[in-house]
Amino acid sequence: MNATDNVMLDVKGLRGGYGAIQVLHGLDFHVMEGEIVVILGANGAGKTTTLRAISGMIERTGAITVAGEAVGSAKAPDIVRKGVAHVPQGRGTLPELSVEDNLRVGAFIRKDDEVDSDMDQWFEAYPVLRERKNQRAGSLSGGEQQMLAVARALMSRPRLLLLDEPSLGLAPIIVSDLFERFAEINKETGTTMLVVEQNAQLALGIAARGYVLESGEIFTEGPADELIDDDAIRKAYLGI
Amino acid sequence: MELLINRVFDGLSNGATYALLAMALVMIFKATTLINFAQGEFAMFGGFIVMVLVLEQGLPVWIGVIVGMILSAVLAAVIERTLIRPFDPADHLPLVIITLGLFLAINAIAGIVWRFDPRAFPEMFPSGNVFTYGNASLSWYTVGTMVTIAVVAGGLTLLLNKTKIGLAFRAVSSNLESSELVGIRVGPTLQFGWAIAAAVGTLGVAVFVASPVRQLEPQVMVTGLIFAVSAAALGGLDSLGGAIAGGLAIGLVQSIVVPYLGVPSELSLFAAVAVLMLVLLFKPAGLFGTAAVERV
Amino acid sequence: MAAGTPMFTIEKGSAQYRAYRILGFALLALLIFIVAFAFNDTGSITLFDNDYKLSITRVTKAISFMVAILGLQVVAGFTGQLSLGQGFFFGTGAYLSAWLVADHGWNWFATLAVVVPVCFLLGLLFGVPALRIKGLYLALVTLGLAAIFPSLILLDILEPYTGGAAGKQVDSDLKPPGWLPLDGTVDLLNKLPVFGQYFGEGSGLSSKQEQRVWTFFLMVVLALVCFKMVNNLVKSRPGRAMRAVRDNETSAAVNGISLSYHKTMSFGVASALGGVGGMVYVAELGIASQGDFTQLLSILFIVGLVVGGVGTLSGAVIGGLVIAFIPDWASSTRGFPGLPERWLQGPTGGLILGIGLIVLTFVLPGGVIVGIRKIRDRIVRIIPRPPVIPGQHDLSDADAFNSPATAATV
């Protein structure tokens, strides 16, 4: 990937949770423009909550800056307008709407006239989406829905893409294909990505750096190839 | 035979009103899974606004209807913003209580302002019949109501499928969280739904009382709501097309089955409630709705 | 969360607590006594030239509503099934007892032997399909039920029993026993300094007035019995099971609580109470007419339920008073400074209740009872008795042992 020297996402002292249950206890991390960064951790460590905090789905405190702009206490629809797109856990497809409508709604905040040509590009890249253009999105397979969800998120031409456990519920062969495509997208469009994953091996394979979360705090961090080789990490998170 | 034909036409035109009101209920239900118990009263109030515009301000009938629809949409939008939005959409109880409060309050306001004497409503469709065959006749009124439903159905379909706000509305009805994640502001989108529902309901009441045999008074939709709810349930609470089918069906049941079975007219309401119960018991998704998966 | 320390803190089970309870009962008895005699058509408040009657007939009417709302507390407050059809059972009880008393000469209270089982069974009958219909849908169906009641009454085949559109007239038979010194009591009260003037004009009670006072006392006793029974139900095992059903059906089912049994039972109980309320209503009013039992009444019951406080027994008392008095008083308001007279004609009662309901949902969603309890808690706070654990003498946090979930809500 072609990471630049600009910081796309800067997070300091992030705390957040669900009402009385606080999950994040002060996280500090950053993502450079064009990078793919991975957040790893066991179940319940707070990975999904972290993404939800950034995209504005939950109440949080701390300093979040996207491309130099402070996010403050903005809510989700406004954060989307700052260039953040979040593919939620479970894909968040709109099942009753057609594939085409799912893509179109991804471009909701855009006011330019290139929406249709963007859609065509996605149909080119993933012909299966074109085939099922007018079908209910809920009738697609898990892997297809995941691609649809990613395409939908990218329709808003975000600067930062948040991916929450994209491999969840998908067959291994689909998942490796999926991650290849993520790497491709990052290379071709330069979109910065922050990926939360349990499948550490695959995720570290495409990432530049990684953070490991434990009980709402950052346990360790480092370049992806170092994390992969770290014995303790391998034992704890890769089961090797 | 001719009596049957007349009854069918009567049933269809009655059903048109139930269909329109049912569509209003479905709009709100689709987006929020809330049943607006005050929908009938919104519609009745809108009907009175139309009457005032036409009979007291002298507007031509159809202009008055359109303006009345717009005004009731605005009122509903205000109500949504002030009374509905502060509450968590998932928690139904406070919202049900609010709609019941609105039911009482709006009904009372109409009673205070316009009293309870029935008033004649201006005619919306030409009087007389399109054609007559022996004792059977197809009135312009019946044709008019059918055309109205078709126009509304077409309009709503265009609105929902070809406009941005329509897309947003369908997205919110499908998955609220994902909608927020693509930047849709849920509040204003729901507000749009309430406004459209109110406008459609107003048209429904207007059509209902424009009949030469009916008059407008504040209690007009108190039992009408039950018919509309039965119609919506029959058609599947989240299906606009189902609402139309359900409304027409209930109207037909009311005018054909009830007299033929020798059931006294008071029991037509009973028939509607029975239909509602049977639908909810045996096919909660109605004829056309999407079935909800319920675990345990 | 202390809103200031209360003036008194009383431990449950202590002697102070017993004194507190006795004081409470004494106050209640005194209140009932005063209402019985002071409200006997001589009581009215005059505000801004409007005459607001505090008549005892209205209070008895309020009692009938209280019992109906109590029923709603059982089905909606305790098992979480929102029923908009309580008016149906209220009306059934009313007509049934009116018919038995008018046409067959039964004693009013004897009719309960028929009204209670009939309404209970009807409620069960209704509760069974209600199992499959949840939440809003149930509210819809019950509203439909309430809506059809008047048309059922008007059916030709039922006319000889119901009196059709004209209603069923009944002469109230509740004459007080001769030995009760109602007359003498009023004279005595009349002689009290300062307050005596509120107890009549010194001419004793007419027989109609005596009847009303007697009816009031009887109905108060009946209502107390009903409230006590529901209170016992709440504290009993079935009652706790019901509340488990309300709070989380899945956990309740998984814990072996039969959902269908408890839900249908609660419907039966609620409907029976509705029927009892109906009997009280028609015993006081003397006539049952179908226009009184429309879906509007069912909605009013919900108003009373919510205004008083869902899931509380005292809330039913407040709710009953509110829906009995506010519409009457609103229509008695002929003139209010600043408001044009024309605005005050018409169903202002409905308007006040509707707006009140909306405001309350924002301000006091738990009902008026929440506000009252806050005030009460400033004065007296009851704390549970700390448990005695053998071998331990230092218990710093007694409250940890008693979670609010197990405390009965009264």
Present the secondary structure layout.
The complex is a heterotrimer of chains A (240), B (296) and C (410).
Chain A: E1 7-18, E2 21-32, E3 36-41, H1 47-55, E4 60-66, E5 69-70, H2 76-80, E6 84-87, H3 99-106, H4 115-125, H5 127-131, H6 142-154, E7 160-164, H7 172-189, E8 192-196, H8 200-206, E9 209-214, E10 217-223, H9 224-229, H10 231-238
Parallel strand pairs in A: 3-8, 3-9, 6-7, 7-8
Antiparallel strand pairs in A: 1-2, 1-4, 4-5, 9-10
Chain B: H1 2-32, H2 39-56, H3 61-84, H4 92-114, E1 129-133, E2 136-139, H5 140-162, H6 164-174, H7 176-181, H8 186-209, H9 224-235, H10 240-260, H11 267-282
Antiparallel strand pairs in B: 1-2
Helix pairs in contact in B: 1-5, 1-8, 1-9, 1-10, 2-3, 2-4, 2-8, 3-8, 5-6, 6-8, 9-10, 9-11, 10-11
Chain C: E1 8-11, H1 15-38, E2 44-47, E3 50-53, H2 56-78, H3 86-104, H4 108-130, H5 135-153, H6 159-162, E4 168-169, H7 182-190, H8 207-235, H9 237-247, H10 249-254, H11 259-285, E5 287-288, H12 295-308, H13 313-332, H14 348-363, H15 368-379, E6 380-383
Parallel strand pairs in C: 1-6
Antiparallel strand pairs in C: 2-3, 4-5
Helix pairs in contact in C: 2-8, 2-11, 2-12, 2-13, 3-4, 3-5, 3-11, 4-11, 5-12, 8-9, 8-11, 9-11, 12-13, 12-14, 13-14
Task: Provide an overview of this structure.
With 240 residues, chain A is an alpha/beta fold. Chain A is built from 10 helices and 10 strands. In chain A, the strands form 2 sheets. In chain A, strands 6-7-8-3-9-10 form a 6-stranded mixed β-sheet, sandwiched between helices. A 4-stranded antiparallel β-sheet of chain A has the order 2-1-4-5, with helices on one face. In chain A, helix 7 links the parallel strand 7 (160-164) and strand 8. In chain A, helix 3 (99-106) runs parallel beside helix 6. The radius of gyration of chain A is 17 Å and the shape is globular. The model of chain A has no long low-confidence stretch (mean pLDDT 87). With 296 residues, chain B is mainly alpha-helical. Chain B has a domain at 15-125 and 133-221. Chain B has helices spanning 2-32, 39-56, 61-84, 92-114, 140-162, 164-174, 176-181, 186-209, 224-235, 240-260, 267-282, and strands at 129-133, 136-139. A two-stranded antiparallel sheet of chain B has the order 1-2. In chain B, strand 1 and strand 2 (136-139) form a beta hairpin. The radius of gyration of chain B is 19 Å and the shape is globular. With 410 residues, chain C is mostly helical. Chain C has 2 domains: 1-38 and 367-410, no CATH class; 46-175 and 204-336, ABC transporter involved in vitamin B12 uptake, BtuC, CATH 1.10.3470. Chain C is built from 15 helices and 6 strands. Chain C has a two-stranded parallel sheet with strand order 1-6. In chain C, helix 5 packs across helix 12 and helix 8 (207-235) crosses helix 9. The relative contact order of chain C is 0.17. The model of chain C is unreliable at 394-410 (pLDDT under 50). Chains in contact: A-B, B-C. Chains B and C meet through helix 4, helix 9 and helix 11 of B and helix 5, helix 10, helix 12 and helix 14 of C.
